[in-house]
Amino acid sequence: MTTREEVARKAGVSVAAVSYVLNNKPGVSDATRQKVLEAIRELDYKPSHAARTLKTKKTNQLTVFVNYLGDAFEAGILNHLEMESRMFGYFVNFQTYHPEREEELRHFMAGRIDGVFLLGQSLRPETLETLHKAGIPVISVMKPVEPGPVTAFVDIDWTASLQKTIRHLKSEGHLRIGLMANLSETHAHRTRTLAFRQAMKAEGLPFGETDILSGGGRLEAAKAAMLDYIRIGRLGEHTAFVAASDLMAIGMLTACRESGIAVPDRLAIAGCENVLMTLQTTPTITVLDYPRPEASVAAVRLMVEAIRGEPVASRLFDSRLLVRQSTHMGG
């Protein structure tokens, strides 16, 4: 079994430095911390979490609230959070978030975890206050609609990012652009809806309530909403749609295929996350490239710093527009 001393020799640092890293304490440089983490990974060192818990009163457990595990975007974030947290000696568990069970979860978490990751959910003020009083940081990947007293969040600048999508659609001749949205008041997708409205205004294009379809964040619901849109004769009101999630974009594309609606000839469709499935559809789907690995790593670093008692600040990342077949008439 690998020892702490062997990790120190491998990293070329003192045993004390290894202890600082394992216990998530300040006092070592980022370069030294990285050397120790690399040595831990290479030697497959397994620290005694039971002993550390007794000494530090920490559980080395982090919880992630997920909305829907069938969403490849959220599953990817969960995977990145788990891998990065493991590098700092934390175990990650997840709970599917249901607003009606929030009080139950609040009592369950007390004394059992060191931190909570949100995937953009807006927790009730009393829940956030309970976690704050217990010294449990709350870090969100994706900005909640109502951030409240969350410790910090990481996300992209949705208004600026969606402006890139809208400008591209305008360059393809689209001036009547709709949105397939998730209208839940507590879901992070609502932040995207608000940002889309701002982006359309900034680009000088009209946008109102009749330009929104409700897809509930799911492939099946978005498909049903699009089929209904086609069935009642609304096709033609818009020449393009942006979906607030890639699952909903795929649902729209499926509805168009089943209805004999050519994409992008009769209707252009764009997503906003860049999950793998958007490269496997016919046509491939134009998307914003959400930097999941970078955002997840940043979220874990913020969590570790917050647990240490260090000040933390929210971060916004840039995103690229990946133009593919679903919006580009050139193929």
Automatic annotation (TrEMBL):
Residue span, HTH lacI-type domain: 2-56
Chain segments annotated as coiled-coil in the UniProt record: none
Molecular function as annotated in GO: DNA-binding transcription factor activity; transcription cis-regulatory region binding
Domain of life of the organism encoding this protein: Bacteria
Keyword Protein transport part of the UniProt annotation: no
SUPFAM superfamilies: lambda repressor-like DNA-binding domains (SSF47413), Periplasmic binding protein-like I (SSF53822)
Annotated signal sequence range: none
Keyword terms: DNA-binding, Transcription, Transcription regulation
CDD domains hit by this protein: HTH_LacI, PBP1_LacI_sugar_binding-like
Name of the protein: LacI family transcriptional regulator
Lineage: Bacteria, Bacillati, Bacillota, Bacilli, Bacillales
